Amino acid sequence: MATGNAAAVSAFIEGAPPGELSDVVTDIKALTADDPSLLQSAQAAYRRYNEEQLVTVKLPGGSVDVLVSSHNSLGGDRYYDVESSSSFTFDHNAQKASSVQSYTVAYEHGELFEQILAFEFLVLRVFSSTISMMDPLKANRNGRWRSTYFFNPSSCTLSGTIKVDVHYYEDGNVRLTTSKSVPGTSISGSITAPEIMKQIARMEKQYQEDLNKGFTALSEGTFKGLRRQLPVTRQKVEWEKVGGYRVSTSTPWPL
Q: What is the C-alpha separation between 99 and 60, in angstroms, rounded?
């Protein structure tokens, strides 16, 4: 039973919607108050959640968000940030960074990499433009758009994965999780940072348009088909008069 409970706690943590981990942990604490060790033993689940969600954190004394992911992990809960040439320890439970040290990574295609870093504003613009096409985060809703791309200089191909996770919980509880694998796309001509960013922008835009079409089809098709337009009697119920009906004689529909 203890093993099953520990697995359930880990599943709850890893399944927490974006931005709601602390709320989920609070509920877990209430449910496991008689056995606090269950939550204490879920460190690996915290790590998997933060790395999968591409959580960002500000380094001590810094103002720029840096990434926490499996791609920049050094092991032992330490991660490196290319732009600031530093590494740091990340507390997966508290989601805070500490113990910043100098760290430099050598890249075979350093010039191209430096170009991409220089075009970071373009990456942010692409991502920001894509996200802004969705509902902005408000009360009773959370969401995260995560994109990871891999460029192979040898084959001049760009591939990646796009993941969308949206949770809406006003007058209901609806969650959308979807992902798309972007197959290797050849980049012709000169291999430059602007050309790579252009291809990423095209992929992001295409997936956003696909999602919009899917939402429209879901709303106009599937959801509408689930709603009965009229009662079984094929007559509209005049709800404002329900209080005045006499069950035996006045009810306009069979009981």
A: 9
Q: Is the pTM value of this prediction over 0.90? A: no
Say how far apart CA 238 and CA 94 lie, in whole Å: 54
Q: How confident is the model over 43-79, as pLDDT tens digits?
A: 999 999 999 998 889 999 888 888 899 988 999 999 9
**Could you tell me the two tokens for 143?**
């969401």
d(CA 17, CA 176): 10
Report the amino acid identity of residue 138: K
Q: Could you write out the DSSP letters of every residue in 102-148?
A: E-----TTHHHHHHHHHTHHHHHHHHHHHHHTSPPP-TTEEEEEEEE
Report the 10 Å Cβ neighbour count for 39.
Answer: 22
Rounded Cα distance, 68 and 95, in Å: 10
